[in-house]
Write a structure and sequence with these properties.
Structural class: mainly alpha
Helix content: 55-70%
Strand order of the largest sheet: 2-3-4-1-5
Low-confidence stretches: 6-10
Largest sheet: 5 strands, parallel
Number of helices: 44
Shape: elongated
Length: 894
């Protein structure tokens, strides 16, 4: 067999990599051919030493030779706890070339969101949302990529990348279709678990084809490489032994052949027995023994370099190894000559990232593991101080502090708390969690222990509510949290219980704390929070007389502070759900505003109250036909979250409720688009949460209004829109929407069962608003033929409740329902009245439906056409089809 070797310019580690190199060349040629072409992704997977780094180096060489810009980065085994480490490396070539004002211009609205994570902007005052930061980084790379086309991004050792980078990488890989970039990733199989493994799997899936797995060299390729290195006189038995000793591992083969050259061993069969001993000296214990042979100072230098892991400069290593500059320079030269350290490639590593790096990650790992445990721990402690003294900040020093043994050191606790605050500020709560968990093991002093637990609970609130509950309950059970700090901890605990679907526990938590306090602002706030959680509970657990007590308390409120404003909002929402007169609801809601706007401290990103109270306010406006105010609030929420970079659950809810407002207005196309975006974001956050139900329920409701019944059913099936329902209120009522869906697909008895369950749940909570919980209208229609007496009673009760509530929409919809149970002129008169009310309503879909139904009942072409025009403007395709069918038939029309 012919021994094939790499091109002369390439590394010896590229033997038998022709197919992989060809794939790289094809991808680069496609990238260069058209600026508008889709991006592509290559993933190379292989065990340590199989040539992944060499393949990526060749990728860089080919790309640069063909006029591409190349940015590269590399994960590090000891650097996985440093958030955004790899993505910062990747973007440094672009960032260092920009002046601050240029960076702001290129990153645009994402500058303040992604800038802190990239180290080019100071963190803002608000806690950064991890998902928002991730999206900001995706947007940042996309914008910079357009400037630097054709761009190749190269990431080596992705299995050792920090979790924040992997989250960005997975999101970026999924969005390559509309960005002309080549992304090349190399990783080992395994070596990663949990969230990081999930993100890496997502990257591989985004490649759109099988991941390329690198194999070891064949015996023929090993023989070719041996002869290319040692000379053509290397005989076949010697070459076979090289392959047997190294297993065809390219890195080990190259290192072994270098040792053969250094020892001047003849490459013949008689000397082949020496190869195993030489190979042992190049790895593991043999490498350590060889390092020790260079002397204690060189060993100490190598240890210090392994502790640093990155940014290895002679000066920093000298400080860490406590040696003079001249000795450090001499040791560095010894280690370079021994092929343990080398000078980094300036094309890959920025000039300010150190003078040295390990020749291979296998060597770095072996050296690091060879450090005696106690000494390694002590060196990490010194490294933390060296890093801090270098002005790199507590966050950069924290990776070393995490390795220090607990020793009742209060200063270390404070350093870790400061590092956690820095991590949270840039959108890395998991890194903050690691710091605070380590601080607890120190342990903190009794007077600070509760505060550390509280900070840990706040750091995990967005990602692990169950863990947050444990931490905050522990913090509140010990001394140390007093006054406003304790009230805030109780509120955060109740939020975590809510997010963990323990709403009843959330209610009882704030109720118990409020009872412990005397009258005053703190107690008033907790009472308001209790009423808020009870107000959104979908179960039957609200305390007896709750609405009456809330009404009495709200009657004393003039909106003097945010606690009073919150109580006014809660009273208005409670009145709306109970179907009290809409004017009362609006009056209460208006009193909670300041000059028609949200009060300071009650904004969408303010954490003192959370978003739930504002969603309740805007929902009250929605159902009282003040859709202009509701839509303005939901639009403001969306704009605020986008500008703040909050692109997780908050943004999903903002889209869901804006879609809800569009649906109520009759803008069904806009509603569908907005709700699909809400569902996309909600999918990233996680299924089963209340925000997920809001997106799904509203989308199903909108598709039914559009007449897209099959699509509505597909969405329900795909996203689990079926019992059991969440413990929080979802608007519109999911049981009512589910019942309407079942009616639409012809499952009438199932629909009746679902709507009767909705009736029972609504009555238990006294939710008598026929617009918010419209089960009665659909149930009356479903029973019209099988139980007309009950259907008539349902319609009558719904009309009475609608007239009590008093909005045009409520009354018009009740009249439409009553007309559906009648025939002849009675039906015509009722529909005529429904049209009169609904043409004054802001809900255009309902108006269109009433017009079409009235036109059909009255056999009026003019009225049907008016309804048809309205239906078209709404995007109500089902109504359009119904009107057209009647017009085309034409029988009996006038």
């Amino acid at each position: 067999m012919t021994e094939e070797g790499p091109t002369p310019a390439a590394s010896p580690s590229l033997w038998e990599r022709d197919e992989e190199v060809a794939a790289v060349e094809r991808a680069i040629d496609i990238l260069r051919a058209d600026r508008s072409s889709s991006g592509s992704l290559l993933v190379f997977r292989g065990e340590a030493g199989l040539g992944k780094t060499a393949l990526l180096t060749e990728t860089r060489r080919i790309a640069e030779a063909r006029g591409c810009t190349v940015w590269s980065a590399r994960g590090g085994e000891t650097l996985r706890s440093v958030p955004f480490n790899v993505v910062r490396q990747l973007l440094q070539p672009a960032l260092v070339s920009l002046m601050p004002e240029e960076a702001r211009e290129y990153l645009g609205d994402w500058y303040d969101i992604a800038g802190p994570a990239l180290g080019v902007a100071d963190p803002g005052e608000r806690q950064a949302d991890p998902q928002g930061v991730c999206d900001g980084l995706v947007a940042a790379v996309r914008r910079l990529a357009r400037r630097d086309w054709p761009l190749v991004l190269v990431i080596d050792d992705a299995h050792w990348a920090d979790q924040e980078t992997l989250r960005w990488l997975a999101a970026f890989a999924e969005r390559l279709d509309d960005l002309s970039v080549l992304l090349v990733v190399a990783r080992r199989p395994g070596d990663v678990t949990g969230e990081s493994a999930r993100h890496l799997d997502a990257v591989s899936a985004a490649a759109g084809g099988p991941v390329t797995t690198l194999s070891a060299l064949t015996p023929d390729a090993t023989a070719g490489l041996t002869r290319a290195t040692l000379g053509a006189h290397a005989d076949a038995p010697f070459c076979r032994e090289v392959w047997a000793v190294t297993g065809g591992n390219p890195y080990e083969t190259v290192e072994l052949l270098a040792k053969v050259q250094d020892s001047e061993l003849e490459p013949v069969e008689a000397q082949a027995c020496e190869l195993r001993a030489l190979n042992r000296s190049a790895r593991g214990g043999g490498l350590v023994a060889r390092l020790e042979g260079l002397g204690i100072e060189a060993t100490r230098f190598a240890w210090a370099a392994a502790i640093l892991g990155t940014g290895i400069s002679v000066g920093l290593v000298a400080k860490l190894a406590t040696m003079g500059r001249d000795d450090a320079v001499r040791c560095a030269e010894l280690l370079r000559n021994a092929r343990i350290l080398t000078e980094p490639d300036p094309a890959v590593v920025p000039a300010d990232d150190g003078d040295l790096e390990f020749v291979h990650p296998l060597i770095a790992t072996a050296v690091y593991n060879s450090i005696p445990d106690a000494l390694r721990t002590a060196m990490h402690g010194i490294a933390a101080q060296v890093v801090a003294d270098s002005g790199l900040g507590a966050a950069m020093a924290s990776r070393h502090l995490l390795q220090v043994h607990p020793d009742d050191d209060e200063e270390l606790v404070e350093q870790l708390r400061e590092a956690a605050r820095e991590h949270v500020a840039v959108g890395a709560p998991d890194a903050a969690r690691r710091c605070l968990e380590r601080a607890l093991r120190e342990p903190p002093r009794p007077e600070t222990h509760a505060r550390v637990l509280y900070e840990l609970g706040c750091a995990t609130l967005l990602t692990a509510p169950a863990v947050t509950v444990d931490h905050l309950q522990s913090a509140l059970a010990m001394p140390g949290l007093d006054g406003a700090e304790r009230i805030e901890a109780v509120f955060r605990l109740s939020q975590a219980l809510l997010h963990n679907d323990q709403l009843e526990d959330a209610v009882r938590t704030v109720e118990a704390e409020a009872a412990r306090l005397g009258p005053g602002p703190a107690q008033l706030r907790l009472r308001a929070v209790q009423y808020m959680w009870e107000g959104i509970h979908a179960g039957e657990t609200s305390s007896p007389g709750r609405s009456e007590r809330l009404a009495e308390l709200a009657a004393t409120c003039a909106g003097r502070d945010n606690s009073e404003r919150a109580l006014l909002i809660l009273r208005g929402f409670d009145a709306m759900t109970h179907g009290e007169n809409a004017e009362i609801v609006v009056e209460l809601s208006d009193r909670a505003l300041v000059n028609g706007r949200l009060a300071p401290g009650l904004g969408w990103t303010d954490t003192e109250w959370g978003l739930e109270i504002l969603m309740m306010l805007a929902s009250s406006y929605t159902y009282t036909d003040r859709l202009d105010r509701a839509e303005s609030m939901f639009t403001e929420a969306l704009r605020t979250y986008e500008s703040a970079g909050w692109s997780g659950g908050h943004l999903a809810l903002a889209h869901a409720f804006l879609g809800f407002a569009h649906r109520r207005r009759g803008r069904l196309r806009e509603a569908e688009s907005t709700l699909r975006e809400s569902l996309r974001i909600a999918e990233r956050v996680g299924r089963g949460l209340p925000l997920y139900w809001s997106a799904t329920c509203n989308l199903v409701d909108t598709l039914l209004a559009r007449g897209h019944v099959d699509e509505a059913w597909e969405v329900a099936e795909q996203y689990g829109f079926a019992p059991p329902y969440p413990s929080t209120i979802v608007l519109p009522d999911p049981q009512s929407v589910r019942g309407r869906l079942l009616l639409a697909v012809g499952r009438t008895q199932d629909a009746v069962n679902e709507l009767e369950a909705a009736e029972k749940a609504a009555n238990a909570r006294s939710h008598l608003n026929p617009v918010m919980a419209p089960w009665a209208l659909d149930l009356a229609r479903a029973l019209a033929t099988t139980d007309p007496v009950r259907a008539a009673q349902l319609a009558s009760d719904a009309r009475r409740r609608a007239e009590r509530f008093g909005t045009d929409t409520a009354i018009g919809e009740a009249l439409r329902c009553a007309a559906a149970l009648e025939t002849g002129q009675r039906a015509v008169r009722l529909l005529s009245q429904a049209v009169t009310y609904l043409e004054s309503s802001p809900c255009q879909y309902e108006h269109a439906a009433a017009r079409v139904e009235y036109g059909i009942a009255a056999r009026s072409v003019a009225e049907i056409n008016r309804g048809l025009a309205l239906a078209r403007s709404c995007g109500a395709d089902g109504l359009v089809a119904q009107a057209r069918d009647v017009l085309e038939t034409g029988r009996g029309l006038r």
